Amino acid sequence: MPLNFFNFIGFPLSFPLLLFLQATLLSDGSIVKTLPGFPGVLPFKLETGYVRVEESELFYYFVESQGRAPFDPLILYLNGGPSCSGLNGFLYQAGPLVFNITDYTGGLPALSLNPNSWTKTASIIFVDAPIGTGFSYATTPQGYSVSDTKSARQTHNFIREWLINHPEFIKNEFFIASDAYSGIVTPVIAEEILNGNEIGAEPRINLKGFLSGSPHTDKLQEDNSIIPYSYQMALISDHLYQSARISCNEQYVIVDPSNAKCLTDLEAIYECIGQIDFANILEPRCDINLVPEEKDGQQARRSLKENQTYNFNSSVQKTDKKFWCRNFVYALSNIWANDRSVQNALHVRQGTIREWVRCNESIIQQTYLYDIRSAIVYQKNLTNTGLQVLLYNGDHDLGLPHISTQKWIKSLNLSKQSEWRPWFVDGQIAGYTVKYSNQGYHLTYVTVKGAGHSPTEYKSKECYSMFERWIHYYPL
Fold this sequence. Notes:
Layout (H helix, E strand, L loop, with lengths): L4 E4 L2 E4 H10 L5 E3 L13 E8 L2 E8 L10 E5 L7 H8 L3 E3 L11 E3 L9 E5 L9 E2 L7 E2 H18 L8 E6 L6 H13 L8 E7 L5 H6 L1 H7 L5 H10 L6 E2 L4 H14 L14 E2 L10 E2 L5 E2 L17 H12 L2 H6 L15 H7 E2 L6 H6 L6 E7 L7 H9 L4 E11 L2 E11 L2 E8 L11 H12 L5
Parallel strand pairs: 6-9, 6-12, 11-18, 12-13, 13-19, 19-22
Antiparallel strand pairs: 1-2, 3-4, 4-5, 5-9, 5-10, 7-8, 14-16, 15-17, 20-21, 21-22
Helix pairs in contact: 3-4, 7-8
C-alpha cells in the first residue's frame, strides 16, 4: 500500500513515517564522536538532536566549552537569512571546525580545527531556526508558516526546553548571539525571555545579554544608508552624491515615480555600484543578479541591495586563486551535509527533509512573513533591563552599512561611557569601538576593520579576540 506524501516548500514528507518518528524518537541529543572528513575522534564534545516546539522539530548542534564548561557562558547562536542553517555558524563563523579548501580536489570535503572557535571559551548551541532551515522540519504543513514574531517565540521556547534536558547549564550565564538577519529577532527573544522569567516560567533563564554581528534592525534605514556609505567609500562621485541627496531629499528607497531627477540619479548610482559585491566591497562579485525592485502601483521602490542567488556547482574539483569566489567555500557545505554518512553521524532523522541547503530560499519566497520591519523599539525597551549588549559591523559591508547601525544606536539616547577609539589585536588596529550605558545597561559598539557582512567570516582571529574579551567582561 503506497504511503501518502505531501509536498510543502520543497520538502516531501511521509506523514505516516513522520508520526512513527515522533512516537519513537526522543527529543534529547546524541553525542557525536567522529565526523566524516575529520581525522580521528573529535577533540571537543559535540551533541546533536531535536527539540520539539509547537508543530516543529528544531535541530541543533551543541558544542561544550573547551575551557571551563561548568562556569563558561552558554550561547544560543542564531544565523541570518532568515533561512540559513546553524551549520553555517558552526562551519563558517564561530564553530570549532572549518573546511580545508587548500587541498580540495573533489569528493567529500575535509574538515580541520578552527583555531579561533568561540567554543574555546563558551558553550554554544547552533540551532536550525526558523522551521524549514537546515535539518529542522514541521510535523504539519501549517507548521512551515512562520514569521519574525513566531520565530522569536519558538526560539524562546526552544531554549527553555533545551535547558530542561540539560539542567547542568541552567545556572550558567546565558547570552544570545546572532548574525545578520537574526539581529531583528534577537531583542524580541531577549524581551520574551525576561517576560517569561518575570511570570515564573521554568526553568529560569540566566540571561545576561546578547551580541549581534551585522545586526539587521531596521530595513528602511539600512537600505537608505547604502548611498551615503557608497559616497564615503569613494564608490560614487561627490557631484553625483550631492545631486541625489538633493533630488531624492535623502530618501533613496521609496521614490515617487514622478520624481524624474531622483530616478535618473539613482540609475547613475546603480551603474557605479551595481557590479560590486555587497557583502564585501573588496571581494569579487560572483553568481549574483542585481535587480531594482518595484512594489505598489503608487510608489516605485528602487532597492540598490542585491537579490542574491547562489548557484552552487557540486562538480567543482578544485579552487583556483585566479577565479576564487567565496561562494565556492559555501558550496562545500552542500556537498558535505547531503552526504548520507554525514547525516548518519549527526543523527539526522532520515526522510524528514529532501535536501539540505545552507540557506533555504523557499522559506523566504513562499512561507516567511516579515512582520517586524524595525526592531528599534525592542532595543529601546531593553535599555532599562541591565543587559550587556555587543553590536559589531564589518566596515566594508555595503548591504548593511555600519553607518545605519550607528544611526539607530544614537536614537536610543544613551549616555556615552567611553569615546570612539581604536581597539587592537596583536598590536594592530582591528577596528574602532565606543561604549554607551544607561544605569546597569551597557552597549558596546564595534567596527571590524576590513570585514564584510558577517564579520566572523572575514576576520576570524579579530572577532574571536573581541568575543573573548567582551563575554568575560574585559574591555576591548
